[in-house]
Amino acid sequence: MQDTPTTIRTPVNTLLRRDDANGIFQVSRRAFVDHALMEREYEAVFDTCWLYLGHESELPKPGDFVTRTVARRNILFTRDAQGKLHALFNTCPHRGATVCREAKGNSKVFQCFYHGWVFGCDGKIKGQPGEERYAEGHKRSGVGNMTPVPHFASHAGFCFINFDPAAGSLSDYLAGAKDILELIAAHSESGMTIVDGAQQYAIRANWKLLAENSVDGYHAVTTHASYLDYLKNMAGGLVPVPLSGHSYDLGNGHAVLEYKAPWGRPIAQWVPMFGEQGKHEMEQIYARLAARLGDDKAKRIATHNRNMIIFPNLVINDIMAITIRTFYPVTPGEMMVNGWALAPREESEWARKYRLFNFLEFLGPGGFATPDDVEALQSCQMGFANAGSAGWSDISKGMGQAEPSYDDELQMRLFWTRWNQLITGSAG
Predict the structure, then answer these.
(1) pTM for this structure?
(2) Chain center to CA of 186
(3) Residue pLDDT, tens place only, 16-56
(4) Can you give the three-state secondary structure of the chain, one letter per residue?
């Protein structure tokens, strides 16, 4: 999809410069280093946008829970006895102590260690030591219940929260991203599931650099040259599939790259490294996909990769494995990253082994991609020390093209345009 045209030429002293006539799009590097801007991001972006909380498969049974930090808030994510999911602020309504101090588990109730108040999985108060000393209507009033997050909703198994009481619906917010989430969910006959375990690490760089990098097809050939060489060596004499595809505007700052690539995908794209057993398994998986979804959709799932960003900070990479990442700023020059692997619930032990191998080989902390990307982002952050003299980043590749390639920069321009709208209140 072509860039949305605008007649506004952004003044030099603002955060974006856009000149459609000359195909120029620039971002002020102040956006990566300014402490006041980071606080403005929490207020204007993270406090108003829908944010990823988790996947419904993380809570398969009544009483299951996980605790998670989302935009500096401690959230308790639960499934109650009736199977309903809840997102609660993990703080006691009595005196403010953290109610659940475990990362995950299963429990019928949660007891605050400070004064012993007890809450159900729905956050409603169940008991108070010395209850007879409270007024008769205290418990019925609801003041003793844990506070739910203002908005909680899910789509295709992906669960989101929004801290803004006036927020619109998740469906409207996701816009075209809903189709990609549904496509990913369609990988499985019985439902997708988060694989046990997670990655958490820090990068000494601004969070928006990872937003850019995660949907940047332009850097693959240079930054990840060693991985592409490795794939050629593992191809067993076969000519690897070249990188090719397009980028698409999904609305509201969301975007996706969809492309073909030379690596194997345990959903149904065989490569020689998978061996004859893998070839047989891939053929069976594809046959089931085609029978369930039709050949066109099965082929799209099996042979096309997708790198998607849901604004502001959810990245889903449906590539050699499916990874989910979120990342939040700690300072203008540091972020915390969380990552999970997603897989079909019914896949075989063989397919799961190769899925996790692929996940760690490329995106793991010691894999081919992550160390390269971390080095690149940290190098950019170091370069921003020159922001006073070299103060603008250029994001113009493919500008004005009718069909942006996967290695153009449409997706980044969409992100930055939405970011600028929220930060500055500009409609441009």
Answers:
(1) 0.92
(2) 18
(3) 999 999 999 999 999 999 999 999 999 999 999 999 999 99
(4) CCCCCCCCCCCCCCCEEEECCCCEEEEEHHHHCCHHHHHHHHHHHHCCCCEEEEEHHHCCCCCEEEEEEECCEEEEEEECCCCCEEEEECCCCCCCCCCCCCCEEECCEEECCCCCCEEECCCCEEECCCHHHCCCCHHHHCCCCCCECCEEEEECCEEEEECCCCCCCHHHHHCCHHHHHHHHHCCCCCCEEECCCCEEEEECCCHHHHHHHHCCHHHHHHHCHHHHHHHHHCCCCCCCCCCEEEEEEEECCEEEEEEECCCCECCCECCHHHHHHHHHHHHHHHHHHHHHHCHHHHHHHHHCEEEEEECCCEEEEECCCEEEEEEEEEECCEEEEEEEEEEECCCCHHHHHHHHHHHHHHHCCCCCCHHHHHHHHHHHHHHHHHCCCCCEEECCCCCCCCCCECCCCHHHHHHHHHHHHHHHCCCC
Question: For residues 394 and 84, what is the distance between their CA atoms, to the nearest angstrom?
Answer: 47
**273: Cα within 13 Å, side-chain hemisphere:** 20
Cα(80)–Cα(122) distance, integer angstroms: 6
Q: Where in the chain is the domain with CATH 3.90.380.10?
A: 186-424
CB 112 within 8 A of CB 89: no
User: What is the CATH architecture assignment of 51-171?
Assistant: 3-layer Sandwich (2.102)
186-424: CATH architecture? Alpha-Beta Complex (3.90)
For residue 425, the model assigns a pLDDT of: 86
Of the CA atoms within 13 Å of residue 248, those in its CB half-sphere come to: 15
Low-confidence ranges of the chain (pLDDT < 70): 1-13, 220-221, 224-242, 387-389, 427-428
Count of beta carbons in the 10 Å neighbourhood of residue 366: 8
CB atoms within 10 A of CB 112: 22
Contacts of residue 156, defined as CB under 8 A and 6 or more positions apart, other chains included, come to 178, 181, 182, 184, 185
Q: Where in the chain is the domain with CATH 2.102.10.10?
A: 51-171
Residue 31's identity, in one-letter code, is A
Per-residue confidence (pLDDT) for residue 157, from 0 to 100 = 98
